[in-house]
TrEMBL record:
InterPro entries: Fe-S_Maturation_MIP18, FSCA_dom_sf, HMA_dom, MIP18-like. It comes from the Bacteria. Pfam families: FeS_assembly_P. Residues 3-76 form the MIP18 family-like domain. This is Aromatic ring hydroxylating enzyme. One of its GO terms (molecular function) is metal ion binding. It comes from Pseudothermotoga hypogea DSM 11164 = NBRC 106472.
Amino acid sequence: MTKEKVLEALKQVIDFEIGLDIVNLGLVYDVAIDNENNVTVTMTMTTPACPLAGLILQDAEDKVRQIEGVKDVKINLTFDPPWTPDRMSEEIRKKFGI
């Protein structure tokens, strides 16, 4: 189990309001994997009032659970530090002219 595999799975999770994946949006703050292949993802939303937060969090958990060998998944939602457009990948920032 690797962090890269988890991030690849999370790239399949789309923020439907923006139409981009949560990794390139910079919503994933951390991925931790313990010795038993339990995965903990710490992530945020673009705003605390995101109406799709529940769906996005569930989709993230589902995508990580589909990785062969994953034992358990925990998604931690945080707003500290708050998300800013600076967290987006360079490619996405260029696309938006940032």
